[in-house]
User: Which sequence fits this backbone?
């Protein structure tokens, strides 16, 4: 395979003398040396052999995939927690270097697989900035609908699995029935439930089918009832409250120092939401509120996510009301495939189709990063182009990974059962963490 | 629950004129009773697994088992066959003797406790009056307490013998939990024994027929006993020994096939026993409410069948409650469970014994005869006051309406930040 020469001005500072990437320490002392923030508390060596080392995962019902936590227990109290990741490493980023931009879209389905169509849209947002394309008004609104539906799916899975982890089985099935409704909507739109691959650079893979908006309206009308049911079941339930309040509390400054984002950060009282602070897809024109917690514990994360479900419904209602007619895809033959009928009946269109599929659209030299508010937190796809149809490098900013890094800080000193609850409250998807 | 001529009834559990004295009739009828009770009990336990799946399905808005047989009724048989056919696995490092012994130790006490529970009014036979309990022991209730506490050995040994850390944690949790709640359970029933003046379960039933059901006369004891039975049977919200999200499957993580199956079977058997005990101790057992016809001789077959029906209804109601609660509530945490047992239930039970003993003594000294409306009414009022006090004191806005929940009307609005201003400025991150 021919190697390509990379001749792009990178924003990062490059390599050091030994050929390793230069790492700039975030916090330095007077001499310029890196200092660790919140250094790991020294743990008393266990000379008596009283502590038990217990391995949770990678095959454990409550690790939400293949996370592995090695816990040192004193009785049932966690003295030390060492998370291990990497069991689901698939090399998405490396594979992407050998794929055209539109061919990377299916890989984005598979990393945070609970938010697949949201990832598709987020990826093409970055790619469109790289290509310098402005999408059509209809596509903008359709993507908002897609991203909010995807947020609803992700939060519902979180809600269900967390309630199972804390011992309540029933809200799980209620949540999954609503999730099924959303999946049916996505299936009739994209043809797939989980791996939607719904977005393309410059538009969507397809316009919504006839009658789809009515089905969406119906969902938007009935879904708040389910939220209210789960709310009634859990929010004021004494056991639920007792199991979640005060667990894994992160103060606002701690949450910022750990780089948390999304509901994890907002539960700690920092009202940072990419949709409000760095708006994309005209989110600034939607009327919705950003729920913010006060204590940063598991209970606040629960409240924030449930409220976000309601806010997503509000956004969906507005999106349905404003969805304009018109084309979904941009009118740019360098990006968009010709109509299928024309491609099979006209020679020029067929050549056009062939060249676009085989060679792929070429962006100008440059780099792009568009952060979006994924259900897990701030997510973005960074990509560098050398002018060919494949990125030199693309990288995912995975919110789950960054959020997970705070788990030792959150669980140490709590009980074994709390580890499960706190781990659930982070809302991790291992596909995104290991990539 | 009309008051009965009390002294005559409280003198003995069963009409003393017609006991079954002869050896052979006694032995044969006991064997027949044993066979019938055992079969009904085991089939009932099997059907309970089906009921649990159907009830959970209704609560969760789905169908439950539908494939095997009509409405999935043969699912039970399919599961049984599956469990018998599966491979028995033994962990390499397990203590094999104890590993095999543990499921038996869990299963046998669950069966044994049922022996003393009277499930209907006595049945007249040509050889005399037959008590409708497999063994109508004079120490009936003490026997139940003694045997049911043996069940914990099975679970602890299962956890220990598996040589698995999750199983060990499950076993440890189970032993701590069952010992803690056994004390509260025993203490809560002292009040029942105070009123009945006897530990024979038939006597306790007749006492309730005389005075009114204990759930009204001893409401606090009922509440404590009810909570303790959930802990004793390892059911949600107290299913910590097998908390599947934390400990995989807890003490039975390493078990397979029929040895595994014995643990759920003993759990359901314990549920049946606990439901039966709750109805015997607090809901009059086989007593038919609002009539004394069933509690008085002459004993007939009709009476036996009717009382059996009422007893079954009560037990089924409590079994349903077990399932209802399981599919509604989340699970306690270990320390919460312990503090509920030791810091709330045990002190309350002890204080309640003193209160009831004092009340009975005071009523006796005031020459209020037991079985009169005045006696029952006084106890009822006392218990209403006690329950109200308990809710106000123990709850303090936590259990019934959790004040600890920060989500109160106005606070929800504080949760939502005001849109429209720069949020990043607040944390000094403005671009």
Assistant:
């Amino acid at each position: 395979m021919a190697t390509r020469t990379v001749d792009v001005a990178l924003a990062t500072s490059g390599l050091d003398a030994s050929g390793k990437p230069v790492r700039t320490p975030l916090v330095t002392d007077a001499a310029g040396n890196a200092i660790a923030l919140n250094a790991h508390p020294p743990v008393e060596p266990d000379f008596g052999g009283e502590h038990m080392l217990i391995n949770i995962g990678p095959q454990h019902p409550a690790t939400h995939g293949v996370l592995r936590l090695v816990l040192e227990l004193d009785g049932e109290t966690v003295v030390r927690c060492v998370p291990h990741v990497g069991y689901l490493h698939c090399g998405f980023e490396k594979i992407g270097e050998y794929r055209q931009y539109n061919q990377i879209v299916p890989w984005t389905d598979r990393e945070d697989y609970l938010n697949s169509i949201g990832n598709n849209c987020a990826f093409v947002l970055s790619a469109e900035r790289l290509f310098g394309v402005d999408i059509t008004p209809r596509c903008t609104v359709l993507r908002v609908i897609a991203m909010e539906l995807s947020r609803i799916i992700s939060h519902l899975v979180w809600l269900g699995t967390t309630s199972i982890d804390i011992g309540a089985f029933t809200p799980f099935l209620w949540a999954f029935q609503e999730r099924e409704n959303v999946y049916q909507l996505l299936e009739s739109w994209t043809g797939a439930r989980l791996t939607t691959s719904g977005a393309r650079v410059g538009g969507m893979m397809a316009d919504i089918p006839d009658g789809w908006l009515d089905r969406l309206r119906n969902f938007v009308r009935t879904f708040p009832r389910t939220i209210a049911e789960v709310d009634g079941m859990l929010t004021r339930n004494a056991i639920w409250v007792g199991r979640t309040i005060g667990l894994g509390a992160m103060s606002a400054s701690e949450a910022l120092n750990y780089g948390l984002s999304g509901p994890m950060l907002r539960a700690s009282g920092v009202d940072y939401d990419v949709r409000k602070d760095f708006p994309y897809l005209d989110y600034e024109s939607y009327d919705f509120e950003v729920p913010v917690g006060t204590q940063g514990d598991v209970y606040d994360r629960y409240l924030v996510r449930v409220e976000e479900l309601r806010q997503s419904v509000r956004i969906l209602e507005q999106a349905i009301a404003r969805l304009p007619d018109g084309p979904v895809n941009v009118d740019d033959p360098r990006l968009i495939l010709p109509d299928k009928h024309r491609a099979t009946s006209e020679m020029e269109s067929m050549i056009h189709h062939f060249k676009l599929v085989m060679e792929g659209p070429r962006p100008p030299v440059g780099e792009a990063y568009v952060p979006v508010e994924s259900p897990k937190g701030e997510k973005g796809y960074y990509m560098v182009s050398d002018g060919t149809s494949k990125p030199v490098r693309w990288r995912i900013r995975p919110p789950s990974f960054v959020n997970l890094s705070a788990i030792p800080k959150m669980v140490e000193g709590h009980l074994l059962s709390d580890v499960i609850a706190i781990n659930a409250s982070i809302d991790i998807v291992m596909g995104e963490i290991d990539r | 629950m009309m008051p009965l001529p009390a002294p005559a009834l409280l003198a003995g559990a069963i009409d003393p004129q017609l006991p079954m004295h002869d050896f052979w009739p006694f032995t044969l009828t006991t064997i027949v009773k044993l066979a019938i009770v055992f079969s009904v009990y085991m089939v009932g336990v099997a059907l309970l697994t089906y009921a649990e799946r159907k009830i959970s399905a209704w609560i969760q808005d789905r169908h439950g088992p539908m494939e095997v047989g009509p409405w999935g009724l043969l699912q039970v048989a399919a599961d049984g066959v599956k469990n018998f056919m599966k491979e028995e696995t033994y962990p390499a490092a397990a203590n094999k003797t104890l590993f095999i012994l543990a499921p038996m130790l869990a299963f046998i006490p669950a069966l044994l406790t049922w022996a003393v529970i009277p499930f209907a009014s006595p049945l007249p036979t040509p050889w005399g009056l037959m008590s409708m309990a497999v063994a109508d022991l004079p120490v009936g209730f003490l026997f139940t307490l003694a045997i049911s506490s043996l069940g914990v050995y099975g679970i602890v040994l299962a956890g220990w013998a598996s040589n698995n850390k999750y199983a060990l944690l499950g076993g440890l949790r189970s032993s701590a939990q069952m010992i803690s709640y056994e004390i509260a359970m025993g203490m809560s029933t002292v009040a029942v024994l105070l009123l009945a003046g006897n530990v024979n379960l038939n006597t306790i039933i007749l006492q309730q027929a005389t005075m009114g059901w204990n759930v009204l006369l001893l409401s606090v004891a009922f509440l404590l006993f009810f909570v303790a039975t959930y802990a004793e049977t390892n059911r949600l919200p107290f299913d910590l020994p097998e908390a599947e999200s934390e400990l995989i499957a807890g003490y039975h993580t390493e078990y397979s096939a029929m040895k595994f199956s014995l643990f759920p079977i003993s759990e359901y058997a314990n549920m049946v026993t606990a439901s039966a005990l709750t109805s015997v101790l607090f809901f009059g057992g086989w007593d038919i409410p609002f009539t004394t016809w069933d509690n008085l001789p002459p004993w007939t077959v009709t009476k036996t069948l009717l009382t059996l029906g009422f007893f079954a209804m009560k037990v089924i109601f409590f079994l349903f409650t077990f399932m209802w609660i399981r599919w509604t509530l989340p699970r306690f945490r270990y320390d919460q469970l312990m503090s509920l047992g030791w810091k709330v239930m045990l002190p309350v039970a002890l204080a309640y014994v003193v209160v009831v003993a004092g009340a009975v003594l005071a009523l006796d000294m005031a020459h209020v005869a037991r079985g009169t409306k005045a006696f029952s009414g006084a106890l009822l009022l006392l218990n209403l006051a006690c329950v109200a006090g308990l809710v106000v004191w123990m709850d303090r806005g936590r259990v019934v309406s959790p004040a600890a929940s920060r989500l109160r009307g106005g606070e929800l609005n504080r949760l939502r930040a005001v849109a429209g201003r720069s949020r990043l400025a607040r944390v000094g991150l403005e671009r």
Observations:
- Chain A has 17 helices and eight strands.
